[in-house]
Amino acid sequence: MSRSLQAAFCLLEVERKFLPLAVQDLITQHGNPPFRSIRALGRQTIHNVYYDRSSLLSSAGVWVRLRNGLWEAKVKRGGNYNNSRFEEFSDPQAISQKIAGIIGVPRTQQERFGLKPVTSLSTIRRSWVADDEFKIVVDTTDFGHTVGEQKQRTMQEMDDRIARFMERYSWAFRTGVPKGKLTAYFERDSPVS
C-alpha cells in the first residue's frame, strides 16, 4: 500500500511481544507441527527517534517517532504491555491533532509537533509470514536487545488467533515475559536497586 493511501486512514494493529525465537531460523528449522507455510520477508534496518514532552504522550499511551525520516504515531487502544492494540497514524496532520489533544498546542511536523527527542535507536528487523497470515518480526537493537512481535493489522478476534498460533507452534517461540525495545533502552543505564 502506498504511503499516500495510508495517510487517508489509520491502521489498526494487534501486537503480541515474545522473547527471541527458540530456533535460529524459521525457514530451515522445523518443529512439530510444522508451519503450513513460511516465507521470509528479509532483513531491514530501521532508525527510530522517539519524541515526547515531559512524558505527557507516553503517559497517555501515545508514542511518536520519526522512523527512517517519516513521522508515525501509535495510540494504545487496549490490551496490556505484552499483548497490545494500537491505532497507527502516518499522516502528519492526524499526528498533530492527536498530540494537540494531549499537550493542548497544535504544532506542525516542521516544528517537531512541539516535542523533544527522548531516544534514538537503530534496529535490524527480520520478518516472516507464517500460514499466509501471521507476520512474525524479530528486532535486534543497536544496544543488543532482541524482542519478537507477532503482528496483525485488524483487531477482530486477532488476539485469540495469535495466541492459538503461538501455542500451536510453541517449538518456535520461547516462553517468558518479553521486554520491549524502549523499556530495555531506558533500563540499561538505570541503577539497580
Automatic annotation (TrEMBL):
Pfam families: CYTH (PF01928)
Biological process per Gene Ontology, one example term: thiamine metabolic process
Cofactors required: Mg(2+)
Compartments where found: Cytoplasm
Entry superkingdom: Eukaryota
UniProt keyword Transit peptide, yes or no: no
Gene Ontology cellular component list: cytoplasm
Domain CYTH positions: 12-144
Keyword Magnesium: yes
EC number: 3.6.1.28
InterPro entries hit by this protein: CYTH-like_dom_sf (IPR033469), CYTH_domain (IPR023577), THTPA (IPR039582), ThTPase_euk (IPR012177)
Broadest EC class assigned to this enzyme: hydrolase
The entry's keywords: Acetylation, Cytoplasm, Hydrolase, Magnesium, Metal-binding
Catalytic activity: thiamine triphosphate + H2O = thiamine diphosphate + phosphate + H(+)
Record-level Gene Ontology MF annotations: magnesium ion binding; thiamine triphosphate phosphatase activity
Major location category of this protein: cytoplasm
Segments traversing the membrane: none
Family indicated by similarity: Belongs to the ThTPase family.
Function: Hydrolase highly specific for thiamine triphosphate (ThTP).
Assembly with partners or alone: Monomer.
Protein name in the entry: Thiamine-triphosphatase
Organism placement in taxonomy: Eukaryota, Fungi, Dikarya, Ascomycota, Pezizomycotina
